[in-house]
Amino acid sequence: MSDRLVRGKGPRQLSKNPQQVDVPSVNVYSGPMAMSDHDAGRWNVRIGLVIFVCSAILIFARLGYYPLWDDEAVTALSGKGVWATGDTTVLIGRNVVAYGGGRLLKDLHDRSTPPLGAFLAAPFTRVLDGSPFSLRLPFALLGLGTITLILWWLRADSASTLERALVALGLLGNVSLILFLKQCRYYSPAIFASTGIAYLYTHWQGRRSRLAAMAALSLMLLSSNYLNFVALYACLALDHGLWGRRKSRLALADWATLLLPQVLLGAPLVGKWNTLGTGNSAYFWGNGLPEKLVLVYRNLRDMNACEFGPGLLILAAPLLYFRRRDESLLRMSTALLVYVVVVSALSPQPVNVGDGKYADVRYLAPLIPLCMAISVRAILAFDARRWIALGLALVAFETNLLNGGPLQPPQELHPGSIHCTLARYLGELLSPVPDPYSFALKWINAVVPEGSSIWVVPDSMVYPLMYHAPQCVYAWQLPSPPRNSSGAWPGFTSRDSFCPITSSCSDHRLCR
Questions:
Q1: Model confidence over 244-283: pLDDT tens digits?
Q2: Alpha carbon of 455 to those of 17, 494, 503: distances in Å?
Q3: For residues 470 and 481, what is the distance between their CA atoms, to the nearest angstrom?
Q4: What is the Cα–Cα distance from 320 to 234, expressed in whole angstroms?
Q5: Per-position b or e across 154-173, b if 16+ CB within 10 A of its CB
Q6: Which positions ≥6 away from 101 have C-beta within 8 Å?
Q7: Distance in angstroms (rounded) separating the CA atoms of residues 68 and 75
Q8: 426-483 residue pLDDT tens
């Protein structure tokens, strides 16, 4: 995010506060059709209401229609453990949650995953019988909080009506953002905290209370996802070193207000939920420099394919700096690249250089508001005339043309043609597509006796069934011998001792 979302050429207004960042003030549109202040104020309110109401509809529509998917179910099961024991135990009723062959576990607790998602979901495992709607509800509310924060940011910057309209198109046309904000997963807390930290970083104005709020949001981000925390602070450190410290300097008491709470409260949290102390640590050290470079490329490629923002417009943003001398284009573009590089360097996803697989762009979800901000500033730098800017925004945000849609290789999710993803999403809301979990759960509840053992293949797809149909025993998640264990776990049998059971088996209960 820039320190002012609406900026261009113009005289600098000196701040009365010597610690406040000086920003240029300019109306991005001042042609013969410019509105009066009264008319602009009315339109600003209308655009804000449209953004808020439409975002709420898109986030909450069919929120509980589908069962929890793999990672959502892991969060919900951890939430059950937190509600029962106050900790992220993996012993849930009859079952053990041993994701990835138990690589997240230490002493029968998940000690790899930052705990905020589980603690946030915990009370909602008891509300409305722990339905998908109730579990997604707190995350969706935080998502709506992110939208509200962006609207507040526009108000704080006295954004023009034109820019608010561009932001409306960018927010409402970004289906990836909407989907991330409505899942029972760390995405929504991480996006909310990251956006809040960026706002406070650019608007702290010498107020120590805002640094304290920034520290609180930083702890929220840390307890949501370690990668997002490290990547964001790498961006802030570089931005402050290159640009920020020339305009504002923090006193020793300011640094203490910002950093001391994070050290005192964050260190025990990381010490307890220590990824490097579990089997998951091998995935952090498994990639060499060639693999990390490949991952940088894949992350950028797949962010574009998933329409985090109009890729060609974002790519052009540093060049458009020379058209308007808008420093925010350089600052935001630098932050975007640094964030991707840091996440790629530390990501636990294994990379085989020649396998052509996708990147786990979910680790980059907090970048979506930044991609939108870069795109809006780039459009205004290209041409700030109202109808030209709005027309370019419609193409950029409501189609995949500037993502290179026709040039992308045809795939199941990306058919290699120009389309409007928002229109497709609205069509799916009106006519939902079937999902495999609903059918499997209906079959299990109708046919499989309580206490029966079930082996689910692939392994990761066991957790939605384990959460929604807990009356069965979901067996053989662990290899032989179990990882991080000197011997067999009492009461658990490794999957290598059994033959796979397929749909051709005569025993339709799968296994007793």
A1: 887 778 899 999 999 999 999 999 999 999 998 888 888 7
A2: 65, 11, 12
A3: 25
A4: 25
A5: beebebbbbbbbbbbbbbbb
A6: 279, 459, 477, 478, 479, 482, 483
A7: 10
A8: 999 999 999 999 999 999 999 999 989 998 888 889 999 999 999 999 987 776 554 4
Amino acid making up residue 24: P
Helix residue ranges, H only, 347-418: 368-382, 386-398
Q: CA dihedral in degrees (48, 419, 371, 192; nearest 10)?
A: 60
Radius of gyration of the chain (CA): 24
Q: Give the sign of the dihedral formed by CA 10, CA 16, CA 22, CA 28.
A: negative
CA 421, CA 418: separation in Å to the nearest integer?
A: 9
The two three-digit tokens of residue 117, written as one number? 């998602």
Dihedral sign computed on CA atoms, order 229, 233, 236, 239: negative
CB 480 within 8 A of CB 496: yes
Q: How far apart are CA 378 and CA 314, in angstroms?
A: 7
Q: Which stretch of DSSP H or E encloses residue 292?
A: helix 289-305
Q: How many CA atoms lie within 13 A of 197 on its CB side?
A: 28
The pair of structure tokens assigned to 396 is 């950029």
Q: Please, are residues 42 and 163 in contact by the beta-carbon 8 Å criterion?
A: no
Q: For the beta carbon of residue 241, count every other beta carbon within 10 angstroms.
A: 10
Q: Is the pLDDT of residue 29 over 60?
A: no
In this structure, the strands spanning 91-92 and 95-96 are: antiparallel
Nearest C-alpha neighbor of 233 from the set 103, 346, 324: 346
Angstrom CA distances, 465 to 126, 252, 444, stand at 18, 53, 9
pLDDT of residue 484: 47
| Residue (of 365, 223, 185, 350) closest to 280 by Cα position | 350
Residue 145's beta-bridge partner residues? none
* 24, containing H or E segment: strand 23-24
* Burial of 261: CB neighbours in 10 Å, binned 0-12, 13-18, 19+: middle
Mean pLDDT of the chain: 85
Residues contacting residue 60 through CB under 8 Å, at least 6 positions apart: 140, 182
d(Cα 503, Cα 455) in Å, to the nearest integer? 12
